[in-house]
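ok so i was messing around last nite and threw this chain in just to see what happens. nothing serious, just curious
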Amino acid sequence: MNFAMIVMRRVVRRLLFIQFVITVLVAFTYLILQNSEGFFAAFYGGSITLSATLLTAWRLGRATELAESDQQQGQIEIYIGAIQKYFLTLLMMAVGMGVLKLDPLAIIVSFALTQLSFAANKVDTSF
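result:
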């Protein structure tokens, strides 16, 4: 495993932890202020970000492996991952709001707050 993969795994683990903590905090805030429906909707909204992060990490890992033999194939893999991430996000939002009839505001608030975790995740690339 090369250094880039080691750093990426460390960053992704920390990012997922931060996103999970934010998701739980927002969900329990909704539980306290509203009801259990808000709790489930907020937890679902945070899980959208968690799912998208896992998908992105998997795609970046594949892109790194492919780039070692063919750089263009690695770039294509990154673009495919970005497209999949947006479709996954849209699909999960549609299912949560349309099919499961969860509170849209709770989903969006939790999703937006967990997105802030990307700004809080400092990347240390030193040995």
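not much to say yet. Helices lie at 3-33, 36-69, 71-99, 104-115, 117-120.
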